[in-house]
Design brief:
13 helices, Rossmann fold, four-stranded parallel beta sheet, six-stranded mixed beta sheet, 381 residues, binds pyridoxal-5'-phosphate, alpha/beta
Length: 381
Protein backbone atom coordinates (compact mmCIF):
# COMPACT_ATOMS: atom_id res chain seq x y z
CA UNK A 1 0.00 0.00 0.00
CA UNK A 2 1.25 3.51 -0.63
CA UNK A 3 2.29 5.35 2.53
CA UNK A 4 0.13 8.15 3.91
CA UNK A 5 3.04 10.05 5.42
CA UNK A 6 6.52 9.68 6.88
CA UNK A 7 6.76 10.26 10.61
CA UNK A 8 9.74 11.62 12.52
CA UNK A 9 11.01 8.97 14.93
CA UNK A 10 11.91 11.59 17.52
CA UNK A 11 8.78 13.76 17.40
CA UNK A 12 5.74 12.04 15.88
CA UNK A 13 4.15 15.45 15.21
CA UNK A 14 6.66 16.08 12.41
CA UNK A 15 5.33 14.62 9.15
CA UNK A 16 6.91 14.49 5.70
CA UNK A 17 4.86 13.86 2.58
CA UNK A 18 5.76 10.46 1.11
CA UNK A 19 5.80 11.10 -2.64
CA UNK A 20 9.33 12.48 -2.66
CA UNK A 21 12.86 11.12 -2.32
CA UNK A 22 12.86 11.50 1.46
CA UNK A 23 15.92 11.46 3.67
CA UNK A 24 15.63 12.30 7.38
CA UNK A 25 13.33 14.61 9.35
CA UNK A 26 14.00 18.18 8.15
CA UNK A 27 13.39 19.54 11.68
CA UNK A 28 15.77 17.44 13.73
CA UNK A 29 17.64 15.05 11.44
CA UNK A 30 16.06 11.95 13.01
CA UNK A 31 15.20 8.87 10.91
CA UNK A 32 11.72 8.79 9.36
CA UNK A 33 9.24 5.94 9.81
CA UNK A 34 6.80 5.01 7.05
CA UNK A 35 3.09 5.13 8.00
CA UNK A 36 0.29 3.52 5.99
CA UNK A 37 -3.50 3.57 5.98
CA UNK A 38 -4.83 0.80 8.31
CA UNK A 39 -3.22 -2.45 7.10
CA UNK A 40 -5.45 -5.45 6.36
CA UNK A 41 -3.63 -8.76 6.06
CA UNK A 42 -5.75 -11.70 5.03
CA UNK A 43 -3.89 -14.87 5.98
CA UNK A 44 -5.26 -17.04 3.19
CA UNK A 45 -4.61 -14.43 0.49
CA UNK A 46 -1.06 -13.97 1.68
CA UNK A 47 -0.40 -17.70 2.04
CA UNK A 48 -1.45 -18.23 -1.60
CA UNK A 49 1.24 -15.86 -2.90
CA UNK A 50 4.85 -16.76 -3.76
CA UNK A 51 7.02 -17.00 -0.67
CA UNK A 52 9.04 -13.80 -0.92
CA UNK A 53 8.87 -10.71 1.27
CA UNK A 54 6.55 -9.07 -1.26
CA UNK A 55 3.73 -11.40 -0.23
CA UNK A 56 3.14 -8.79 2.50
CA UNK A 57 2.67 -6.09 -0.11
CA UNK A 58 -0.26 -4.55 1.80
CA UNK A 59 2.36 -3.52 4.37
CA UNK A 60 5.01 -2.46 1.85
CA UNK A 61 5.36 0.76 -0.19
CA UNK A 62 3.86 -0.35 -3.53
CA UNK A 63 0.44 0.21 -5.05
CA UNK A 64 -1.79 -2.68 -6.16
CA UNK A 65 -0.37 -3.03 -9.64
CA UNK A 66 3.26 -2.04 -9.14
CA UNK A 67 6.02 -4.57 -9.79
CA UNK A 68 8.74 -4.21 -7.18
CA UNK A 69 12.46 -4.48 -8.01
CA UNK A 70 12.80 -8.00 -6.69
CA UNK A 71 15.16 -10.98 -6.84
CA UNK A 72 12.95 -13.23 -4.70
CA UNK A 73 14.28 -11.95 -1.39
CA UNK A 74 12.75 -13.12 1.88
CA UNK A 75 10.83 -16.33 2.36
CA UNK A 76 13.78 -17.70 4.30
CA UNK A 77 13.49 -20.89 6.37
CA UNK A 78 12.98 -21.00 10.13
CA UNK A 79 14.76 -24.16 11.22
CA UNK A 80 14.67 -25.95 14.55
CA UNK A 81 18.15 -26.47 16.05
CA UNK A 82 17.78 -29.68 18.05
CA UNK A 83 21.49 -30.44 18.24
CA UNK A 84 22.17 -26.97 19.64
CA UNK A 85 19.32 -27.41 22.13
CA UNK A 86 21.03 -30.58 23.31
CA UNK A 87 24.48 -28.97 23.37
CA UNK A 88 23.22 -26.10 25.52
CA UNK A 89 20.87 -28.23 27.63
CA UNK A 90 18.20 -25.69 26.66
CA UNK A 91 14.66 -26.24 27.89
CA UNK A 92 13.26 -23.91 25.22
CA UNK A 93 13.11 -24.51 21.49
CA UNK A 94 15.91 -22.86 19.53
CA UNK A 95 15.02 -21.72 16.02
CA UNK A 96 17.29 -20.23 13.40
CA UNK A 97 15.96 -17.71 10.91
CA UNK A 98 18.41 -18.34 8.11
CA UNK A 99 18.90 -15.10 6.23
CA UNK A 100 22.00 -16.42 4.46
CA UNK A 101 19.62 -17.82 1.83
CA UNK A 102 18.67 -14.41 0.51
CA UNK A 103 19.84 -13.15 -2.91
CA UNK A 104 23.33 -11.66 -2.42
CA UNK A 105 23.75 -13.87 0.65
CA UNK A 106 22.45 -11.61 3.40
CA UNK A 107 19.32 -9.94 4.71
CA UNK A 108 20.53 -6.65 3.24
CA UNK A 109 18.66 -7.73 0.10
CA UNK A 110 15.32 -7.20 1.85
CA UNK A 111 16.06 -3.60 2.71
CA UNK A 112 17.53 -2.82 -0.68
CA UNK A 113 14.65 -4.40 -2.58
CA UNK A 114 12.21 -2.05 -0.84
CA UNK A 115 14.46 1.01 -0.94
CA UNK A 116 15.53 0.62 -4.59
CA UNK A 117 11.89 0.01 -5.62
CA UNK A 118 10.89 3.25 -3.96
CA UNK A 119 13.88 5.32 -5.14
CA UNK A 120 13.30 4.23 -8.75
CA UNK A 121 9.60 5.03 -8.56
CA UNK A 122 10.27 8.48 -7.12
CA UNK A 123 12.68 9.38 -9.91
CA UNK A 124 16.21 8.64 -8.70
CA UNK A 125 18.61 7.55 -11.42
CA UNK A 126 21.78 7.13 -9.35
CA UNK A 127 22.35 5.60 -5.91
CA UNK A 128 25.18 5.88 -3.41
CA UNK A 129 25.81 4.36 0.02
CA UNK A 130 28.57 3.55 2.45
CA UNK A 131 28.75 -0.11 3.41
CA UNK A 132 30.64 -2.62 5.49
CA UNK A 133 30.19 -4.91 2.47
CA UNK A 134 26.84 -6.65 2.37
CA UNK A 135 24.70 -3.54 1.92
CA UNK A 136 26.94 -2.47 -0.95
CA UNK A 137 26.62 -5.86 -2.65
CA UNK A 138 22.85 -5.81 -2.31
CA UNK A 139 22.52 -2.23 -3.52
CA UNK A 140 24.75 -3.05 -6.51
CA UNK A 141 22.59 -6.04 -7.48
CA UNK A 142 19.23 -4.30 -7.08
CA UNK A 143 20.59 -1.14 -8.71
CA UNK A 144 21.68 -3.21 -11.72
CA UNK A 145 18.22 -4.73 -11.96
CA UNK A 146 16.65 -1.26 -11.79
CA UNK A 147 19.05 0.13 -14.43
CA UNK A 148 20.42 2.71 -11.99
CA UNK A 149 24.00 3.79 -11.58
CA UNK A 150 25.49 2.71 -8.25
CA UNK A 151 28.45 4.02 -6.26
CA UNK A 152 29.58 2.28 -3.08
CA UNK A 153 31.97 3.67 -0.47
CA UNK A 154 33.73 0.86 1.42
CA UNK A 155 36.40 0.89 4.13
CA UNK A 156 39.64 -0.06 2.38
CA UNK A 157 40.16 -3.15 4.56
CA UNK A 158 36.81 -4.65 3.44
CA UNK A 159 37.35 -8.30 2.34
CA UNK A 160 38.22 -8.51 -1.35
CA UNK A 161 35.30 -10.80 -2.08
CA UNK A 162 32.82 -8.15 -0.91
CA UNK A 163 34.56 -5.48 -2.98
CA UNK A 164 34.47 -7.74 -6.04
CA UNK A 165 30.82 -8.52 -5.44
CA UNK A 166 29.93 -4.83 -5.85
CA UNK A 167 32.23 -4.37 -8.85
CA UNK A 168 30.93 -7.40 -10.71
CA UNK A 169 27.35 -6.12 -10.42
CA UNK A 170 28.67 -3.06 -12.22
CA UNK A 171 29.00 -0.64 -9.31
CA UNK A 172 31.67 2.02 -8.98
CA UNK A 173 33.57 1.16 -5.77
CA UNK A 174 35.46 3.85 -3.83
CA UNK A 175 37.75 2.64 -1.05
CA UNK A 176 37.96 4.82 2.04
CA UNK A 177 40.73 5.17 4.59
CA UNK A 178 38.63 4.62 7.72
CA UNK A 179 35.50 2.89 9.00
CA UNK A 180 31.90 2.88 7.79
CA UNK A 181 31.09 6.24 9.37
CA UNK A 182 34.03 7.79 7.49
CA UNK A 183 32.75 6.11 4.32
CA UNK A 184 29.35 7.58 5.23
CA UNK A 185 30.72 11.13 5.22
CA UNK A 186 32.25 10.63 1.79
CA UNK A 187 29.07 9.05 0.44
CA UNK A 188 27.11 12.03 1.79
CA UNK A 189 29.47 14.47 0.08
CA UNK A 190 29.23 12.47 -3.17
CA UNK A 191 25.43 12.63 -3.00
CA UNK A 192 25.57 16.41 -2.53
CA UNK A 193 27.97 16.87 -5.44
CA UNK A 194 26.40 14.54 -7.97
CA UNK A 195 22.73 14.34 -7.03
CA UNK A 196 22.94 10.56 -6.45
CA UNK A 197 20.37 9.45 -3.87
CA UNK A 198 21.95 8.49 -0.54
CA UNK A 199 20.80 5.02 0.59
CA UNK A 200 22.84 4.96 3.82
CA UNK A 201 21.27 3.13 6.77
CA UNK A 202 18.34 5.18 8.13
CA UNK A 203 19.16 8.17 5.91
CA UNK A 204 16.20 7.04 3.83
CA UNK A 205 13.10 5.40 5.31
CA UNK A 206 12.52 2.31 3.13
CA UNK A 207 15.34 -0.07 4.00
CA UNK A 208 13.55 -0.50 7.35
CA UNK A 209 10.38 -1.44 5.45
CA UNK A 210 12.15 -4.29 3.70
CA UNK A 211 13.84 -5.55 6.84
CA UNK A 212 10.64 -5.46 8.89
CA UNK A 213 9.34 -8.34 6.76
CA UNK A 214 11.57 -10.65 8.84
CA UNK A 215 9.03 -10.17 11.64
CA UNK A 216 6.06 -10.72 9.32
CA UNK A 217 7.58 -14.03 8.21
CA UNK A 218 8.45 -15.04 11.73
CA UNK A 219 4.88 -14.53 12.90
CA UNK A 220 3.47 -16.33 9.87
CA UNK A 221 5.89 -19.24 10.37
CA UNK A 222 5.54 -19.53 14.15
CA UNK A 223 1.91 -18.50 14.54
CA UNK A 224 2.84 -16.48 17.64
CA UNK A 225 5.56 -14.19 18.94
CA UNK A 226 8.69 -16.00 20.16
CA UNK A 227 9.97 -15.46 23.70
CA UNK A 228 13.14 -13.77 22.49
CA UNK A 229 14.93 -12.65 19.34
CA UNK A 230 18.73 -12.66 19.27
CA UNK A 231 19.78 -10.14 16.70
CA UNK A 232 23.36 -9.32 15.66
CA UNK A 233 23.23 -5.55 15.60
CA UNK A 234 25.14 -3.06 13.47
CA UNK A 235 23.19 -0.09 12.11
CA UNK A 236 20.03 -1.54 13.63
CA UNK A 237 17.62 -1.49 10.68
CA UNK A 238 16.55 -5.08 11.33
CA UNK A 239 15.88 -4.57 15.00
CA UNK A 240 14.08 -1.27 14.45
CA UNK A 241 12.15 -2.68 11.50
CA UNK A 242 10.97 -5.78 13.36
CA UNK A 243 9.93 -3.68 16.34
CA UNK A 244 7.83 -1.49 14.02
CA UNK A 245 6.39 -4.61 12.37
CA UNK A 246 5.07 -6.00 15.65
CA UNK A 247 2.92 -2.87 16.12
CA UNK A 248 1.63 -3.20 12.55
CA UNK A 249 0.91 -6.91 13.04
CA UNK A 250 -0.97 -6.12 16.25
CA UNK A 251 -3.03 -3.44 14.50
CA UNK A 252 -3.81 -5.98 11.78
CA UNK A 253 -4.97 -8.50 14.40
CA UNK A 254 -2.22 -11.09 13.85
CA UNK A 255 -0.74 -10.81 17.36
CA UNK A 256 -1.74 -9.39 20.73
CA UNK A 257 0.20 -6.92 22.85
CA UNK A 258 2.93 -9.39 23.83
CA UNK A 259 6.38 -8.80 22.40
CA UNK A 260 9.51 -10.91 22.18
CA UNK A 261 12.46 -9.78 24.25
CA UNK A 262 14.68 -8.01 21.72
CA UNK A 263 18.25 -9.01 22.45
CA UNK A 264 20.88 -7.01 20.64
CA UNK A 265 24.18 -8.83 20.23
CA UNK A 266 27.33 -6.93 19.29
CA UNK A 267 31.04 -7.70 19.00
CA UNK A 268 33.10 -6.82 22.07
CA UNK A 269 35.40 -4.88 19.73
CA UNK A 270 32.53 -2.62 18.63
CA UNK A 271 29.69 -2.47 21.14
CA UNK A 272 28.29 1.08 21.31
CA UNK A 273 24.71 -0.07 21.88
CA UNK A 274 25.69 -2.49 24.66
CA UNK A 275 27.64 0.23 26.43
CA UNK A 276 24.78 2.74 26.16
CA UNK A 277 22.29 0.12 27.32
CA UNK A 278 24.39 -0.72 30.36
CA UNK A 279 24.87 2.97 31.22
CA UNK A 280 21.15 3.62 30.94
CA UNK A 281 21.80 6.17 28.18
CA UNK A 282 19.23 7.27 25.62
CA UNK A 283 21.76 7.41 22.83
CA UNK A 284 25.12 5.82 22.09
CA UNK A 285 28.52 7.43 21.80
CA UNK A 286 30.86 6.56 18.97
CA UNK A 287 32.99 3.47 19.67
CA UNK A 288 36.67 4.23 19.09
CA UNK A 289 39.03 1.73 17.40
CA UNK A 290 36.21 -0.54 16.33
CA UNK A 291 37.42 -3.99 15.26
CA UNK A 292 35.70 -7.31 14.62
CA UNK A 293 35.73 -10.04 12.00
CA UNK A 294 31.93 -9.70 11.90
CA UNK A 295 31.99 -6.98 9.24
CA UNK A 296 28.26 -6.32 9.50
CA UNK A 297 28.70 -5.43 13.18
CA UNK A 298 31.55 -3.00 12.66
CA UNK A 299 29.38 0.11 12.99
CA UNK A 300 30.93 2.46 15.56
CA UNK A 301 28.10 5.02 15.46
CA UNK A 302 24.53 4.42 14.32
CA UNK A 303 21.87 6.98 13.42
CA UNK A 304 19.27 4.60 14.85
CA UNK A 305 20.86 4.36 18.31
CA UNK A 306 17.89 5.89 20.16
CA UNK A 307 15.39 3.73 18.30
CA UNK A 308 17.34 0.56 19.06
CA UNK A 309 17.75 1.40 22.74
CA UNK A 310 14.06 2.26 22.99
CA UNK A 311 13.02 -1.06 21.42
CA UNK A 312 15.39 -3.15 23.52
CA UNK A 313 14.16 -1.54 26.76
CA UNK A 314 10.46 -1.53 25.85
CA UNK A 315 10.68 -5.25 25.05
CA UNK A 316 12.34 -6.16 28.34
CA UNK A 317 15.35 -7.30 26.35
CA UNK A 318 19.03 -6.67 26.79
CA UNK A 319 22.27 -6.02 24.91
CA UNK A 320 25.25 -8.36 24.97
CA UNK A 321 28.86 -8.04 23.77
CA UNK A 322 30.67 -11.14 22.51
CA UNK A 323 34.42 -11.73 22.29
CA UNK A 324 35.86 -12.69 18.88
CA UNK A 325 36.93 -16.21 19.85
CA UNK A 326 33.53 -16.96 21.39
CA UNK A 327 31.81 -15.69 18.28
CA UNK A 328 33.97 -17.88 16.04
CA UNK A 329 33.30 -20.96 18.22
CA UNK A 330 29.56 -20.32 18.04
CA UNK A 331 29.73 -19.85 14.27
CA UNK A 332 31.44 -23.24 14.02
CA UNK A 333 28.80 -24.84 16.26
CA UNK A 334 26.05 -23.56 13.97
CA UNK A 335 27.88 -24.89 10.93
CA UNK A 336 29.05 -28.22 12.35
CA UNK A 337 25.95 -29.14 14.35
CA UNK A 338 23.16 -27.71 12.22
CA UNK A 339 24.60 -27.37 8.73
CA UNK A 340 23.51 -23.75 8.61
CA UNK A 341 25.68 -21.42 6.52
CA UNK A 342 26.41 -19.28 9.56
CA UNK A 343 28.61 -16.20 9.44
CA UNK A 344 30.38 -14.56 12.36
CA UNK A 345 27.26 -12.48 12.90
CA UNK A 346 25.11 -15.60 13.19
CA UNK A 347 27.70 -16.94 15.60
CA UNK A 348 27.28 -13.78 17.70
CA UNK A 349 23.54 -14.46 18.02
CA UNK A 350 24.13 -18.01 19.27
CA UNK A 351 26.88 -16.84 21.63
CA UNK A 352 24.45 -14.28 23.06
CA UNK A 353 21.94 -17.02 23.83
CA UNK A 354 24.68 -19.22 25.30
CA UNK A 355 25.78 -16.38 27.57
CA UNK A 356 22.24 -15.73 28.80
CA UNK A 357 21.52 -19.41 29.48
CA UNK A 358 24.85 -19.74 31.32
CA UNK A 359 23.86 -16.71 33.42
CA UNK A 360 20.66 -18.47 34.50
CA UNK A 361 18.15 -16.83 32.15
CA UNK A 362 15.17 -18.95 31.15
CA UNK A 363 12.72 -18.43 28.30
CA UNK A 364 9.08 -19.43 28.38
CA UNK A 365 8.80 -20.10 24.67
CA UNK A 366 10.90 -20.53 21.55
CA UNK A 367 13.90 -18.29 20.97
CA UNK A 368 14.95 -17.19 17.50
CA UNK A 369 18.55 -16.66 16.41
CA UNK A 370 19.11 -14.57 13.30
CA UNK A 371 21.81 -15.83 10.97
CA UNK A 372 21.98 -12.57 9.07
CA UNK A 373 24.36 -13.58 6.30
CA UNK A 374 26.35 -16.30 4.59
CA UNK A 375 29.93 -17.05 5.61
CA UNK A 376 30.87 -17.83 2.05
CA UNK A 377 31.20 -14.12 1.35
CA UNK A 378 33.99 -13.69 3.88
CA UNK A 379 37.61 -14.66 3.61
CA UNK A 380 38.03 -18.22 4.94
CA UNK A 381 39.24 -18.29 8.52
C1 LIG B 1 24.48 -5.40 8.05
C2 LIG B 1 24.64 -6.67 8.73
C3 LIG B 1 24.28 -6.81 10.09
C4 LIG B 1 23.75 -5.68 10.90
O1 LIG B 1 22.44 -5.37 10.49
P1 LIG B 1 21.62 -4.12 10.98
O2 LIG B 1 20.21 -4.47 10.73
O3 LIG B 1 22.07 -2.95 10.17
O4 LIG B 1 21.91 -3.93 12.43
C5 LIG B 1 24.39 -8.07 10.66
N1 LIG B 1 24.85 -9.12 9.96
C6 LIG B 1 25.21 -9.03 8.67
C7 LIG B 1 25.72 -10.24 7.97
C8 LIG B 1 25.12 -7.80 8.01
O5 LIG B 1 25.48 -7.70 6.72
Amino acid sequence: MLPTYLECSLDAAHHVEPECLATVCPHDGAPLLVRYPPITLDRATIAARPYTMWRYREALPVDDTEEPISLGEGGTPLVRARRLEAMLGATCEILIKDESQNPTGSFKSRGMSAAVTRAKKLGASALVAPSAGNAGGAMSAYGARAAMSVTVFLPKDTPEILIQECRTYGADVRLVDGLIDDAGKQAGAFAQETGAFNMATLREPYRIEGKKTMAYELIEQLGAVPAAIFYPTGGGTGLIGMWKAFDELQAAGWIDGRRPKMISVQAAGCAPIVRAFEHGDEKAERWEDAHTAAWGLRVPAALGDRLMLRAIRASGGTAIAIEEATMADAMRALREREGVDASEEGGAALAGLQQMLAGGSAFDGPVVLFNTGSALKYAPR
